[in-house]
Amino acid sequence: MAKKVCVLVGGSWGTALAMVLADNGHDVRLWARSEEQVNEINKTRENSRFLPGVKLPDGIRATTSMEEAVKDAEAVIIVAPSKVMREVARMLKPFWREDMLCIHATKGLEIDTLKRMSTIIAEELECDESKIGVICGPSHAEEVARRRPTTIVVASSKEKEAELAQNLLMNAYFRVYTNRDVLGAELAGAFKNIIALGAGMSDGLEYGDNAKAALLTRGLAEITRVGTVMGANPLTFSGLAGVGDLVVTATSRHSRNWRAGYLLGQGKPLQEVLDSMGMVVEGIRTIEAAHMILQKYKVQMPIAEQLYHVLFEGLDPRTAVEALMGRGPKTEMEMISQETWEQWHT
User: Fold this and answer.
1) Which residues does UniProt call coiled coil (predicted)?
2) Catalytic residue at 43?
């Protein structure tokens, strides 16, 4: 059954999700700040800045009016960069209704507070956090927009809400699973960007496949360790939100985080890299958040820690690699604490 769905905002991932919804027969309102972008979408059926060469379905109508976008909508999907999520949620508040399905698809943390996106949205909408779900998993917007087979997960603490989102989005090329672990899904989506940036840096340094495979494997261990300490289900990190998203983000040239890391590995200064990207690189912000998390929770995040030294303290990337390789002997099974292991196996 066709529904009116609002998507905020009109970047690459927001536009791709709008296309999925329109392909499913829904009436889609895509909100963006730029009048120029909105006019282009409505007149030419293209979002050339974010998805050049992709023809948008007629079921998508763009607007700069939040009220017009949200009015009568049965569901809203928020795809704002993490640094403006609070602002966008605040703009949504006057038009928000308790009966709306609300999901976000942003992979990051708020640096100042270390809060997840669902927490921020709930605070600004003044609703229970259980009403906010999250879309995550291996999903490059460029491939979704070209209708290539993609599988994602919708996480919500409320099974009914997750199933509603699943039914909205699922089709022949876009398969959707559900998960009840919102915390794990959000942490996995945020932290994998750190490892992806490191993988790009490894490629920029021409360290080869052995190094990158080790980085991804130990990176997954690092993500799982910190995620379980923060209260997530460790199984989430071996699913689509965890290892699935990690692999696609750390191995593809579509990935902004990989591309940023690659340029850094080639010796480009951080600001030059950011200026050249043209879009938000969430991994760089998440490394700042991870630096505070490892201090708060007293958990080991050696990869994130070395990347922080490279990005914000001027450490040479090769020196960072030497520091990682020179760490004391460990057992591979030190992914999670014995206490956490026992908790999930009793």
Assistant:
1) none
2) no
Is 238 flagged in the annotation as binding?
no
Instruction: Spell out the domain ranges in the chain.
Output: 4-180, 190-344
**259 marked among binding-site residues:** no
Calculate Rg over the CA atoms of the chain: 20
Query: Any known ligand binding at 29?
Result: no
pTM of the model as a whole: 0.91
Assigned superfamily of 4-180: NAD(P)-binding Rossmann-like Domain (3.40.50.720)
- Judge whether 139 is annotated as a binding position: yes
Looking at domain 190-344, does it have CATH number 1.25.40.20?
Answer: no
Q: Name the catalytic one among 3, 115, 131, 192.
A: 192
Q: How many Å apart are CA 106 and CA 117, to the nearest integer?
A: 7
